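Late entry, written up from scratch paper. The run itself happened at the end of the previous shift, but nothing got recorded in the book at the time, so transcribing now.
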Amino acid sequence: MTKSGQARVPSPAEQLRLFEAIKQHRHPEKNTAIMQISFKLGLRVQEIALLEFKEVCQLNPASNAHRSFVLHQVMSLPAAYTKGADALGRSKSKYQRQTVSFKVDEFDRLLRQVEALVKAGSPVDPKDFYPPVKKHKGKSRDLPLVDKALRQALFDYISLRLEKDPSIKPSDPLFVSQKGGPYSPNTLQEHMAMMLRRWAGIEKASSHSGRRLVMTDIIHKQGKPLKVAQKVAGHVNPATTIIYSAPSEEEISEALKNISNR
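Output as recorded:
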């Protein structure tokens, strides 16, 4: 069953409203490209924040202060960009334990160790007994850049960036904040939420809305095998992808609307 509080999947009308609203604010090319990547490729917010020019295009040498480029046909995302990887160290968030779990035999052994320390009069620090943190493994993936609106948004945005700065390198961040530096995942998450909720008025939408949109479209509307959705999402475990196979908001709304009065 779908968890409560999940990001809202924008309807086609809401998506149109979003892109119209983006045109009324500053940096429309950048914001359009960000949201097109989210809605058409389903990237995590961290992955969007970490994108570099080399992932989306081939930069040609500068000629007479003019820099041309060619969009890739396929975006190749490195494993380090995926969930759980602190790629390039841009995320300011620190992991804080909320729960600690042990197997029964491990817990019994831990208690005997604590008992021995107490009897010996030694100080006991709970953190010394925490199990090691399991690190998430990233998973690289290739995503074809086939959507016309996505390609146009990338072309417009990159053209503008290169016009302003022909010296851009392939390893430079694709998206930069108003301060000129790369986005941290947290900052970009807030920025995307602002566009969706405040600018477009899409209730309960978040930076995860585009990802849910892509997954539910592949599974529900297109009826593709779960393996296809798993590959697009970059999930290591297929059990994670299964979450997106829960009934969509559209299906639930249709079911409730069709309940007969008795």
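The first helix runs from residue 12 to 22.
(Scratch paper discarded after transcription.)
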